[in-house]
Design brief:
By secondary structure, the protein is mainly alpha-helical. Helix content is 73%, strand content 2%. The protein has helices spanning 5-23, 44-70, 77-114, 116-124, 127-130, 153-171, 173-193, 199-221, 227-248, 256-272, 284-313, 320-346, 350-353, 355-358, and strands at residues 28-31, 34-37.
């Protein structure tokens, strides 16, 4: 799947604001007489990631369905089962690759703080989190230090929503996208507004909205627009994302989140339209930042806890305006380091490297 450099850059930006939220440092600044606080409402970034994931899921399913139509075949139960299992394993391996380093850092810190025995005991009690099932309600507070990796509730909810949605979409994508998904979206949104939703239902209706965005992009992409209108769409897109940034720095009313959700969905539509693309976003640096956003999301809380541990150990208490900018930079650099490490490990031919062990010591 060809990457969208603009969207990758947005991934990184929204991951930064989630980090700002969790670090708790609220740098204050004023714009047009309005006082804003860095990351005050950064949780909205999670909604962006759910909608974006729904868009990409719809894109993936549509491509598979297109192959079925080209081959003039209707998938049977065996094919659907194979596709579902393959999808589940592919997503789990992709997510757990970044979950485990964060989990290990968390356990290692507890080894220093509470001892190896207590850390191992806690690890054994965290199987549901390693299976990415924490959002089913088996876990404690997702923001706490310990064996449940902070912020990974998103990963669990995303994984569960995907393994629920993918089989349905794979079986009857057209029926789902045109009839069923709007009904499910309205029901789940109504439940959430009235306080009856949970993390998984929240993820599902946001992802359904992302699927709607994909369908709209499909229709709009087939049309041609005059240059001035394309530029107008770019200005609107840029304006909406600025509003999102301002919203994530505001002490917003809870109900305003739903309006902003539809607004950012519209911005995502504009971000994927071929008529609004910029040539400079094709530079590899933007795709690189998008790939780094995932480890940054999972590792930044561990960086904070380790930093606090060492500062207490060293009896240091730097001012917040020094401590947190340094931590932001450290979290980004550590995430980049982990990403590059995993990329390097992925390119190694382990079978060839350890052939002497696989072949029983003979060559």
């Amino acid at each position: 799947m060809k990457r969208n450099g603009k969207v990758d850059f947005l991934r990184f930006v929204f991951a930064l604001f989630i980090m700002f939220l969790h670090y708790g440092y609220r740098a204050e600044f004023s714009i047009f007489g309005n006082t804003l606080y860095l990351g005050q409402n950064g949780a909205f970034g999670v909604r962006f990631f759910f909608i974006l994931s729904g868009y990409l899921l719809a894109l993936s399913v549509e491509r598979i369905s297109q192959k079925d139509r080209e081959c003039q075949t209707r998938p049977n139960i065996g094919t659907l089962t194979k596709d579902n299992i393959s999808f589940l394993l592919r997503k789990y391996s992709s997510y757990i690759k970044w979950y485990l380093p964060a989990f290990f850092l968390c356990v290692l810190l507890d080894c220093f703080q509470v001892g190896i025995t207590a850390a191992l005991k806690g690890t054994l009690c965290s199987i549901q989190n390693i299976l990415l099932l924490g959002s089913l309600g088996f876990s404690f507070d997702g923001a706490s230090i310990g064996y449940y990796v902070g912020a990974s509730w998103f990963l669990s909810a995303l994984f569960l929503a995907q393994i629920i949605l993918f089989p349905i979409m794979r079986y009857q994508y057209r029926l789902w996208s045109r009839v069923i998904s709007p009904i499910v979206f309205i029901i789940l949104l109504a439940l959430d507004v009235n306080g009856y939703g949970n993390r998984v239902t929240y993820a599902i209706y946001c992802m359904i909205l992302g699927g709607v965005c994909y369908e709209i992009v499909k229709v709009l992409s087939k049309r041609s627009y005059k240059g001035w209108f394309c530029n107008l769409l770019r200005v609107i897109e840029f304006g909406i994302y600025l509003m999102c940034i301002a919203f994530m720095c505001s002490q917003a009313v809870e109900d305003a989140v739903y309006g902003m959700m539809f607004l950012v969905a519209f911005a995502i539509i504009l971000s994927f339209l071929p008529q609004t693309q910029y040539g400079f976003f094709k530079h590899p640096i933007f795709s690189f930042l998008g790939k780094v956003s995932f480890p940054l999301y999972l590792l930044h809380i561990q960086v904070l806890h380790w930093a606090d541990y060492f500062l207490v150990l060293l009896h240091k208490n730097p001012p917040d305006y020094v401590k947190y900018p340094v931590l932001y930079l450290c979290a980004i650099l550590i995430s980049i380091g982990f990403y590059l490490l995993f990329e390097w490990l992925g390119k190694i031919d382990w079978k060839k490297k350890w052939h002497w062990l696989i072949d029983g010591g003979t060559t």
